[in-house]
Amino acid sequence: MDIFTGERLPDSCAICLLGHGSRDPDGTQEFLALWKKLRDRNFCQITEGGFLEFAKPTISEALSACHRHGIKNIIILPGILFSGKHTQKDIPKIANEMFQGLPEINLIFAEPLAPQPELMEVCRERIEQGESGSQESISRSETLLMTVAHGSRNTDFNAQVEKNLSRLGKKLGFGKTLTCFAGNSQHFLADMLNKFTSQKFRRVILLPFFLFTGVWVKRVHSLADTFQGKYPDIEFLKIPHLGYHDLIVEALIQRVREKVQ
């Protein structure tokens, strides 16, 4: 590959930003907005994007677009938080099969986003955004910060994310910080809330650790409404998800740098 100066990728490179895809059209639009922000950052001459399922362009269409430009180095960049089956198996399988028999194409697989310091900074901003919208004056020492994430089958990956979130909560002065890797179980999250709301916190902050809106973000916010009715003396704050924040773009670029420097 040509020499990388650190400011912009060589013209022999293309970035292919890939997302899982969502049945929720709002989630699809948020991915497209992130793709546009990454493209407008002008870190790479060619920046394409695609979805694994539920939306278009597909991954194959995005990779084909990179190839049509005569690119030799395609950096496959997951717009996904956690390592898992999609990043470890599905995406590499599609890409490798597509370029089988084309040895001149160099596929470079970047890592998923979490855990990176830029994401913790976005979390901090989202928390402060939620707090500023409250009419109540409640100290952080009387607040439970609960982050809800889908998580990964890679327990080391989960542990590092949980460690970073715990550090953030301690730095911000919360009375307790918890991370709930909910997977597909909404009941697990509800059980955790029932357990810890009995510990006399005056406020519970529910932070959805998801890049884009969708089923789980809406579940978390719905659960906050349910518990607000159940525990009227406790304030339940619904915090925005990460979204297409500028720092998410920087985190994506950092993942690329790690692979090409």
Blueprint (SSEs and pairs):
Layout lengths: L12 E7 L5 H16 L5 E6 L7 H10 L4 E6 L6 H14 L7 E4 L7 H16 L10 E7 L5 H18 L3 E6 L4 H11 L6 E6 L6 H16 L4 E4 L7 H15 L1
Parallel strand pairs: 1-2, 1-3, 3-4, 5-6, 5-7, 7-8
Helix pairs in contact: 4-8
Describe the structure.
Helix content is 44%, strand content 18%. With 261 residues, it is of the alpha/beta class. The radius of gyration is 20 Å and the shape is elongated. The relative contact order is 0.16. The model has no long low-confidence stretch (mean pLDDT 93).
- As a percent range, the share of strand residues is 15-25%
CA-based shape: elongated
- Mean pLDDT, to the nearest integer, reads 93
Radius of gyration: 20 Å
Q: Spatial order of the strands in the main sheet?
A: 2-1-3-4
Can you count the helices?
A: 8
The termini sit apart by 11 Å
Along the chain, the helix and strand elements come as: EHEHEHEHEHEHEHEH
CATH topology of the largest domain: Rossmann fold
CATH architecture type of the largest domain: 3-Layer(aba) Sandwich
- The overall number of domains is 2
Number of strands: 8
Q: Biggest sheet, in brief?
A: 4 strands, parallel
